[in-house]
Design brief:
By secondary structure, the protein is an all-alpha fold. About 5% of the residues are buried.
Length: about 90
C-alpha cells in the first residue's frame, strides 16, 4: 500500500499573506504605460491573424509599435533620470 502524499507546501506557497510589497506595486504602476502599449500592439497583431493585413491594419500596427517603443523609452528615461545623482540625465 502506498501512502498518499499531500501537496500542502505547494498550496500554501501562495497564501493570502504573501501580498506584493509597496515597491513591487510602485514598479508595476510605473510600467503600466508600457504594458498597455504592448497590449494595444498585440491587439493590432491579433486582428490580422486570420486575414491578409490591409493598409489600415498596417498603419494601426505601425502606430501601436511606435507607441510601445515610445512608452519603453519614456520608462527608460524616467528610470535613468531617477538613478543619476543630482537628477542629471
Amino acid at each position: 500500500m502506498n501512502p498518499i502524499v499531500t501537496v500542502q507546501d505547494a498550496v500554501t506557497a501562495f497564501a493570502d499573506f504573501m501580498e506584493p510589497t509597496d515597491a513591487e506595486l510602485d514598479a508595476t504602476e510605473r510600467e503600466m504605460p508600457v504594458i498597455l502599449a504592448d497590449v494595444d500592439l498585440l491587439d493590432a497583431y491579433i486582428t490580422t491573424l486570420e486575414r491578409t493585413p490591409t493598409e489600415l491594419d498596417n498603419r494601426r500596427i505601425r502606430r501601436a509599435r511606435r507607441r510601445a517603443l515610445a512608452a519603453r523609452l519614456a520608462l527608460l528615461n524616467q528610470d535613468t533620470g531617477a538613478s543619476m545623482p543630482g537628477g542629471a540625465a
